[in-house]
Write a structure and sequence with these properties.
Chain lengths: 233, 233
DNA sequence: CGGCCAATTAAGTATGACGTTTGAGTCACA
DNA sequence: TGTGACTCAAACGTCATACTTAATTGGCCG
């Protein structure tokens, strides 16, 4: 969905990263550069650059005389988009989807409240447009088109919040929504109630009603959590 | 507060990173590797490794025949702890503190609610201990000791939430709290009301009262926002 | 048995050579 | 004069190799 292996070091990364995040090399495992050099049939330079990147993601730590050691899971930079992609592609995808959905449930309502205050007229218009797009694609097995509008809607909300930290979660939300459509049940058309909620959020933002926008978004994320059987107090 | 320049590439990073995030090299600027090589008096190997790391943070993009170009701010991996540190150390520290405080206000209450359900007895005990520690250090210019308990308290909440995404925000919160003590007013002792709120959160978690823990934490973060003059609806 | 020293190992750094991409300039032709 | 293809060179990308540094291991000596 984003970059792709241009350059050998990227190719190595796209092989090593998933191998680490998926547990093929569990925490504590030790890799040696010359071994990798041989395995990927590339030069030392390339391996070292890949290792440096993995190190900056806190996936590994490189120490002299010992090798490149995989770090414990708790220390990984789990907000790194690349790490998120690797983990979503791996075995603990369900677990990862839950974590991210909980994060969404915390962030998106607050973002919607802020968006209601700060959204530009253009952003309001975009929101409305995508909400209506969701309505018009919510029936008749148009899940692909529906997803496009859904993702765009949430991206606009996050961006319109005016908070860069929220805005950067757009990719994460996109992954979660895409993952849900691809992997989850979702054989059937989207829940009409959810569609309506999006329309009403767009309305609330347009009318600068922060409290309502937040509350409605909270309903949306609550629905997303329910889909994954996450705690329902 | 974390790693330090062990290795030349790390030294280069600690110089280039802040230079980019602080705007010394604004987006669109172009760096050439051989120029950097000379400026830092290190080999290509070292420069290239540093560049790879900056690239993985989405701070720069390296293209043939053109050089290493600084990317637009919106594309930076603003959740990377190292990027956060660099930006907090730079000129737009106030702006960064606001962004992060808003993020806290979204995440921490939800985390506290989850902690109330999931915290282990040990974590409950830790919470209580740090809350009491805050009480006992809240008077008489013991800001340093107070800060230690404050940071520890919020770390436990985030970790006890059982959500790895939340848990990894512990460092961010620590930076924000530390930054407030160091840079903000805070000449005077901490607000007694805030101290009391922490004690009550610990209580609520201990009593498994998720709604109360969430609401009380929302009050804490609202206070933090008020300190920074962030919107007060 | 314990502490100290040296040998070994694997990462870190430096350097020279070559390959590859691609922007930019040039030149010819319409 | 404008447009097209063609050439050139600048900058990164990759490789191979030699050397340096740090840390672990293990043996030697007290």
């Amino acid at each position: 969905m984003e970059n792709q292996g241009q350059g050998l070091h990227a190719r190595v990364l796209e092989s090593l990263g998933p191998a680490i995040t998926s547990g093929t090399y569990p925490p504590g495992s030790v890799l040696r550069t010359d071994e990798l050099e041989e395995r990927f049939d590339v030069s030392r330079t390339v391996i070292r650059e890949a290792i440096r990147v993995l190190e900056s993601m806190h996936l590994v730590v490189s120490r002299r005389r010992v090798g490149v050691t995989v770090r414990p899971t708790e220390e990984w930079n789990v907000y790194d988009p690349q790490v998120i992609r690797w983990r979503l592609a791996g075995a603990d995808r369900p677990r990862q989807l839950r974590s991210l959905t909980v994060l969404r449930s915390a962030v998106e309502p607050v973002a919607a409240g802020l968006a209601a205050r700060l959204a530009t007229p253009e952003q309001c218009e975009e929101l409305t447009r995508h909400a209506l797009g969701m309505v018009s694609t919510s029936r008749g097995q148009q899940l692909g088109a529906y997803l496009v509008h859904d993702v765009a809607f949430h991206r606009v909300i996050l961006r319109a919040s005016g908070n860069e930290m929220f805005a950067r979660l757009g990719d994460v939300v996109a992954e979660v929504l895409t993952g849900r459509t691809e992997h989850q049940v979702m054989f059937t058309d989207p829940d009409p109630a959810a569609v309506t909620l999006h329309v009403r959020v767009a309305e609330a933002v347009r009318e600068r009603d922060a409290a309502r926008a937040e509350a409605l978004t909270r309903e949306i994320t609550a629905g997303a959590m329910a889909e994954l059987d996450i705690l329902a107090p």
